[in-house]
Every structure is written in structure tokens, then in C-alpha cells.
TrEMBL record:
UniProt-listed Enzyme Commission number(s): 3.1.3.25
Organism of this sequence: Methyloligella halotolerans
Record GO terms (molecular function): inositol monophosphate 1-phosphatase activity; metal ion binding
Name of the protein in question: Inositol-1-monophosphatase
Keyword hit for Flavoprotein: no
Gene Ontology biological process terms, A to Z: inositol metabolic process; phosphatidylinositol phosphate biosynthetic process; signal transduction
Residue positions binding Mg(2+): E69, D86, L88, D89, D214
Keyword Membrane: no
Amino acid sequence: MPASALMNVMLAAARKAARSLSRDFGEVEHLQISVKGPGNFVTAADHKAEEIIYSELSRARPGYGFIMEERGVVEGADKSHCWIVDPLDGTTNFLHGNPLFSISIGLVREGEFVAGLIYMPILNETYTAEKGKGAFLNDRRIRVAARSRLPEAMIATGIPHLGRPGQKQFIAELDAVMGTVAGIRRTGSAALDLAWTAAGRFDGYWENNIQIWDVAAGIVILREAGGFITDPAGKQVTLETRSFLAGNEAIHNDLKRILKGVPAVSAPEIS
Ligand code: IPD
Ligand code: CA
Ligand code: CA
Ligand code: CA
């Protein structure tokens, strides 16, 4: 199916940013790196890619607002549209020469997630979706996996990094999920986790305390691939949601039940 005008705008911005990221990948010793907090890095590559996406999207759709990881919120004259951008999801992988990183661009219209693009420059995989039009990996239609039993399922998650809240809670959840599924994976890019769940490479995914730019594009791609995404308690996802649970219907339901059974952990954080 030929890409729509909207998707062409998103693709052009992502491709230009991907060229910049690909040039910087493997040149880490020449990149300026800042530490936002423990275990939390940002490089000149993140900033350059974000500026490219910001200027391309602003030029193509003047007036749309933005929520971006590095620059923050930019109000637009058009209050009904907002781009949600993570220019480099998987910065820690990128810094280690690990190719599992992605560009994530989502579009919200009147509060609804309507379009998403996740681009992996090194693996050359582009995941796209618009509400009601299906989800694609490059030009091929994708669907969530049909596996419906946890003992056969491979589940992705995110592990809170150094300095992140919720480490003990995560260990309790891991303990509960680990005993029921075939395997658990951690890629280091939440956008990628959702894209790969949409493509059936993972059967489900959960992660707590992340940001809307990590998942905005993935929400549309996952849903258009036939998947379900809510918060871990099953509540509808909004711009304010910070913890997410995704999968096909059966896996989403079973993981929800398991996670609901994990008591809230009030123990002090690991330091
Ligand atoms: C990170 C990735 C990672 C998730 C972290 C995020 P960043 O984003 O999505 O998978 O576990 O919580 O912060 O900082 O590399 O864009
Ligand atoms: Ca970051
Ligand atoms: Ca991110
Ligand atoms: Ca990022």
C-alpha cells in the first residue's frame, strides 16, 4: 500500500534523523555525552536527531505541537495535533555500539493516538501504522503473534536502570512472570519492544515508569497489528500513563492477572 501524505512526512523526518544517527553510531568517543542522572545519558547524537525531526515536522505541518524527550513541550497554534518524539530510544545501547536503538515518532489528534513510526537505522526496519489502516514492517503487513498460552510465550520488559524508582517492585513482578512464561527479554528500547510485539517477535511486553515518548508510536503500531495495550491494571492509555502492558488479547489478559496479584512493594530502593 503506498504511504499516505502524513506517513511520507514522518518517514522523511525519520530518514533524515537516521542518517545523522548512523553517522554518529560507533563514533562515540567524538560525541559530547551528558549525564542527566544515575544511569541516564544523553549525547549530541540525541540532540542532533531531535532537531532534525523537529525542523522537518514543523516545516511540513506548521502549527502542530510537540512533546519531545530532550527539548520538552512546544505548544503549537493547532491545539488538536501533537507530535510525540523520542529521537533516540535506546541511548545506552547506542553508547555501547549496540544496534538495538530506534527513532520513535507518534501523532496524537484530539487526544487520540493516530499515527506511529518506529525506525531502526542499523537493522533497517521501519514500523508504521495509522489508525484504521493496519501496521507494517517496511512494506509488509504485520500482526501480533497468535500464541495464546504463557508457557509458550516470550515476553519483553524493561529493567529500571541505576537511579530509577521501582527496582524492588520490578523484581517482584519479574519473579511472578518468570515462573509462568517460556522466556523474558530486555532489548533496551521500549519503542522496539512494542514494534517487535506488534510483529509477533515477542508475545507481550510490560514496563513501569517510562515516558509517553517511549511508547506513543508503538501504541498505534501495536493496536493496528491487532494487539492490546493498557496500563498494567487494564486502564486505558492516555498521555499521562507511565506504566504499560501489551500483547495479543490472551497474553495481555493473562499478564494483567499475574501482575495484579503482585503486591505493591514498599521496600526502600536499591542504591
Ligand atoms: C529508554 C528505553 C529503555 C527503557 C528506559 C527508557 P532512552 O529510553 O526506552 O528501553 O527501559 O526506561 O528511558 O532514554 O534510551 O530514550
Ligand atoms: Ca533518555
Ligand atoms: Ca526513550
Ligand atoms: Ca531517547
